[in-house]
Amino acid sequence: MSSAIVTQQLVKHYTPEIKAVDGIDLDVERGSIFGFLGANGSGKTTTIRMLTTLLRPTSGSGQVDGLDIIEDAAEVRKTIGVALQEASLDDIQTGRELLTLQSRLYGVPAGRIKERVAQLLRMVDLTDAADRWVKTYSGGMKRRLDLAAALVHEPKIVFLDEPTTGLDPISREAIWREVESLNKSDGVTFFLTTQYMEEADRLADRVAIIDAGRIVAEGSPTELKAEIGTDVITVRIPGGAENVERAKQALKRLDGAADIREVADSVVVYIRDGSTVIPRVVTLLNEASVAMDEVTLKRPTLDDVFLRATGHHLEAEEAQVTAEGGAS
Amino acid sequence: MNFASATFYLASRSLRETLRQPGIEVSNLFIPIFFFFVTVGALGGIAAGAFDVDNYRGFALPVAVLQGAAGAAGSGGLGMVTDIERGYFDKLMLSPAPRLSLVMGRLVADGVRVTILTVVISTVALIFGAGMETGPGGFLALVVMSGAFGFTYSGIGMAIALKTGSPQAAQVGFLVFFPLLFLSPAFAPKEVFEPWLEFMATINPVTYIIEAQRSLVLDGWEWDKLGYSAAAIAGFGAFTLTLTMLALRTRTA
Ligand SMILES: Nc1ncnc2c1ncn2[C@@H]1O[C@H](COP(=O)(O)OP(=O)(O)OP(=O)(O)O)[C@@H](O)[C@H]1O
Ligand SMILES: [Mg+2]
Can you list the positions of beta strands (E) in A222-265? Predict the structure, then answer.
């Protein structure tokens, strides 16, 4: 059987300058959860909109469930479930009405709609709020309703664009559990975009990191982390870029470092047996009279994979986005 | 999901939306009735002498009705803009419902809203003594004609909404309504117009709808006028629906 989602050099240039997606090859196995990880503006939504037939690619091609996203767009729409980035709902319908209309448009047999809607409402824990206008729902409730709306026709392939961005940990956990359970028990394939390492790590069988419209790393979270092959020592330096640069120069004298990088207010050292190296790190910095705020040692995370692949942190940008009041 | 049932369910949803925001319809109702009373009050007394219209209340009824129709149909575009802005239209576009039904649902709902509004406005005018020469059959014909006009007129707002996705669009849709409604024999018969206005009125489809509705109210069954009106609505509809479909295509590109 063919893969759930395949693309060949998929490209979307909104204008000649805005190369939102710049040649992406994907192969998403059936029954898997595929995490599409990228910072703001990296091209995640644009990719999803092309795969779900809302946006015409500039060039390249793609198949979902073996159907061409351009030639067989109408068939693709019957097959897939989609929840877009901003829960795209109608404020002045109730949750139940919205799911009922959705079921009708997706051709759920009339006799089964009532039951299906009730079941979905139970599943996303919205039974009590079902007859209130969507306007009165919290962000987490809207997200869960949006997820339910994507599932009315029991699709085998589901696209979720940042399903948990802006949610509190409890709401996030609820969505994760739902995704996991549909994947495990019904074999639903998920293509989900995220800015959260933790989300990709927890859910995804495979992760692709997208940066400026290109995939810069791909593999299972374990593989990706193993590829780094070292521990990660992060030294936070007070007093600005100049001090960070001095620290970096000092640490270059470490033996056996695979890589040393400056990232924001820190120097990051990739090195084996990190625990035995820490005293030496402290000594080198003392000798160079560079102060330090904090020294941490950890096993590599997806964040480190991201950093190696793109040259910047994802989490820092995330914090910034929250401060700006949400992503676009 | 086939075209007819998708249209039906989307139209129902749009009408439910109207019931939940009745404020919008209040102004669609109030403005034409207000104008009706004001014009009748101002011109009713002199109409017989000035341009040979004895029953100015009946003469003004179609104008009130069409004004209500245009107002109600204009707010249909607004609903579409809201759907686009909230992203709900994307959700509808993702569904397997035929894309034309996404628009047709709203147009049909606008036709229904206009029909109901027409019944209310004409009933007010009748109570106020407008009269109806052709009786209940004529009343029905007038209502159907207005509903059909509302359906076609709402295509303008819909096209602008789809093309721009901007709330300002609805305002532009509303602007179209002024030349359309008032470059016509709205206040006086064409015969007394200055030549430029008479020319504008002659090429304006709304003129033929007003004249047909007026004949139902004032004169009796004049089949030629009804025929012109049907043709004007069909022609105007073909124009607005083409615009709408072109605009829909740019949105799916
Ligand atoms: N309709 C559009 N017209 C022009 N440029 C666009 C349009 N939509 C997106 N872009 C640009 O394309 C690039 C990719 O945007 P996209 O929305 O795909 O990113 P994203 O990864 O989903 O970001 P986010 O995490 O903020 O949702 C950005 O530079 C964005 O400004
Ligand atoms: Mg996005």
Answer: 231-236, 257-263
